[in-house]
Amino acid sequence: MNQLLVALDVDTRQRALELADQLRGAVGGFKIGSRLFTSEGPSLVTALAARGDRVFLDLKFHDIPTVVGDAVRAAARLGAWMVTVHGAGGRAMLEAAAGAARQSERAPIVVAVTVLTSFDPHELARIGVSRGLPEQVEALGELATTCGLDGIVASPLEVSRLRARLGPATTIVTPGIRGGADCNPTSQDDQVRTLSAAEALSAGSSYLVVGRPIIASPDPLEAARALGRQMAHTSSQA
Ligand code: C5P
Question: Any idea what the CATH number is for the domain that residue 120 is in?
Answer without folding.
Answer: 3.20.20.70
